[in-house]
């Protein structure tokens, strides 16, 4: 029974939040017409959003049931051969139920660092094994057999064994199947991918017990072309679950089609991972086979005159994002505008480092020496009323010619090649090509002996650096690069002219 206004209170609030009995049925959403090529054949297709479960994946239902059925899991280490939704759900729910933080994921060493860090984020300890990445539950030399043997002789560990734990499939017989029948009594066809076999077995058994005419489709990986979660059929047949009572037909789907369909669903607002795309793609392939064979009409419901189909959205795409770009072509994604900027200016910028002209003068210290003193074209000083603090160095990036014409007392000319007044219309960051050019020039400039020596002296003397350019933008690039090299650098907003005008105001 759903709680009032979906508010969970009290010491058992999170436990109740994870209990499906305290919620309305998970959403069943008809997919957009553009994803249903059989709409004209009176086929309606609905997504069962298992991603709306608190742990955001289909495995949280069997995880909940398996933990409830094993009271020793409250105080013992929990180990499972899983790197995905099952172990994530076990780790989260074990904390929710009992505060048990001792959960291990036995994971192939082929997993990415990103995947391992996801487990660690949720407080789950990754335990790596080598050899075959996807091992069979019945393999006596496999990781699952090793865990089974270890748990049998251990007083401080439990192994729930998702592949042969009957609470796995019975959780879907308790919740998923009955929910679908309640929401869509006219259902004719149910499609889901097959991993452990828990979802298809439990949901299929429940659906058929309520409506024997329902057809259940199992969607499998193609051998050697895996999608995370599902298995290939030859490796599944040894499952101890009563799947023969549930599965009427099976199809195989390529990983490319699975990832592509997942992306299409996600772009349409039904956000889901690759196994969800596989479930829908398998359903569409099956419908296509029936249509070509002239038997599609056998599924038409006598009451509605339609064919109502349901597939599962089992998890989310985010942990697999890199794989979408590995499997699918670049043409399937929007291009990145100004991609050249990914190759330059990657160090941190901080607005606190950018000084206005008044702040720059405060950093330098102010006095009124030679208030109107200006250099001639060959001189070195533009204004001499600034008494520079010795702990601050002024680096002037402007050209040698412009520096000679006018500059701040005791500033050092360190001309940045290619820099000139009016560059990029006075708005450098609006022109990615110019940003790249200036940044590339800066990298070479930083390696010049004079500049390198100067920065070494700055670091040794623990000096601050005030950076001047024509408009303040190039100095931001340089300031960011110097900060990365542990130099306390401060670009001046508006550049030399802004500081010049500030000096004029007080002179």
TrEMBL record:
It holds the Pfam family PALP. InterPro entries: Cys_Synth/Cystath_Beta-Synth, Rhodanese-like_dom, Rhodanese-like_dom_sf, TrpB-like_PALP, TrpB-like_PALP_sf. It comes from the Eukaryota. Transmembrane segments: none annotated. Residues 388-504 form the Rhodanese domain. Signal peptide: none annotated. This is Rhodanese domain-containing protein. It comes from Cochliobolus heterostrophus (strain C5 / ATCC 48332 / race O). The lineage of its organism: Eukaryota, Fungi, Dikarya, Ascomycota, Pezizomycotina.
